[in-house]
Amino acid sequence: MDEKNDPYLIEACLKKDLVAWSGLINKYPGLIYVSIENRLKKYGIPASSHDIEDIRQNIFSDIWKNGKLSHITNRDDISYWIAILSGNAAVEHFRSRETRQLQNIVPLYHKIDGEELNEMFPSDIPGPNDELARAEAEDRIDLAIESLAG
After folding, report:
1. Could you tell me which residues come within 8 angstroms of residue 33 by beta carbon, excluding any fewer than 6 positions away?
2. Which residue in 12, 26, 91, 112 has a CA-CA distance of 20 to 30 Å to 6?
3. Which long-range contacts does 51-55 make (Cβ < 8 Å, 24+ apart)?
4. What average pLDDT does the structure give for the chain?
């Protein structure tokens, strides 16, 4: 990579120069990919190449839309900044995805039209009512056996 052109590339990208933007995208895709992959491995987060590519695209989009290049202090070599940004974006991607998934979870005892969900869906696992009915049936059977024996 030719870091000596980074300050010029950054300035042009900040001015929304599409040719410079294309140059930035073509200059650092490998570094971004490896940075994402390494950070996810460090935290034990499994990710497919499709996930990594989505994150990479989101990074470029975020840099473009939010003018993040203006925050770089060392414009002579932005590879370190890009690597850190990429790793952080990867972790944040999975953290926000996990948060969205947790928001979609409905508790089993959530009520819909006055009826609990656990009562609406059949299950092979006995619930408290099933256990009570079983215990009562056992008691009746034991009493019937005792009355026959006695």
Report:
1. 52, 53, 56
2. 91
3. 51/93, 52/90, 54/93, 55/86, 55/89, 55/90, 55/93
4. 84
Q: Where are the beta strands (DSSP E) in 1-150?
A: 111-112, 115-116
Q: Residue with structure tokens 């300050």? A: 7
Encoding tokens for residue 23?
């140059």
Cα-Cα-Cα-Cα dihedral of 140, 143, 145, 148, to 10°?
-130
Give strand pairing partners of 115.
Answer: 112
From CA 54, how far away is CA 24, in angstroms rounded? Answer: 17
Q: DSSP 3-state assignment of 111?
A: strand
Provide the Cα torsion 101, 103, 104, 107; round to 10°: 120
Average pLDDT over every residue of 40-55: 91
- Residue 29 to residues 17, 25, 32: CA-CA distances in angstroms? 19, 6, 5
Question: Which tokens belong to 86?
Answer: 């990429």
Q: Amino acid identity, residue 38?
A: N
